[in-house]
Write a structure and sequence with these properties.
There is one protein chain. Helix 2 runs antiparallel to helix 3 and helix 3 runs antiparallel to helix 4. This protein has four helices and no strands. Helix content is 77%, strand content 0%. It is elongated. The chain has 109 residues and is an all-alpha fold. It has one domain: Helix Hairpins (Orthogonal Bundle).
């Protein structure tokens, strides 16, 4: 029976790099093109997940657990970001009745 390490190492590292680059690019495009605050937060989460996949893959290939420790801290940071970000979006929605970021100009003095 194969372990997780053997399974991950059987896939070439280039595949993980390409996969992470594609997911990161989708996240960047989502941040740059979309105007909905929720979609922008989801795109930022995609970018963080792309980095997590790459860190975990490099960690396994180099037999060093420090990359997986960074993944743990990035996941904790992402959870905090989601909690604070969704609270901000709820407050913006209560004031403007929209999640469109172009409407945020109404909140200026």
């Amino acid at each position: 029976m194969q372990t997780v390490t053997q399974t991950i190492q059987s896939v070439p590292l280039n595949h993980y790099i390409l996969f992470s680059a594609i997911i990161f690019a989708i996240g960047v495009i989502g941040v740059l093109i979309r105007r909905n605050a929720i979609v922008i937060f989801m795109s930022v989460e995609l970018m963080l997940n792309a980095v997590n996949v790459l860190l975990a893959a490099f960690s396994v290939y180099h037999n060093d657990a420090s990359g997986q420790v960074f993944v743990f801290f990035i996941m904790a940071l992402a959870a905090a970001e989601v909690a604070v970000g969704l609270a901000i979006i709820v407050m913006i929605y209560r004031n403007t009745h929209s999640t469109d970021i172009n409407v945020l100009n109404k909140l200026k003095w």
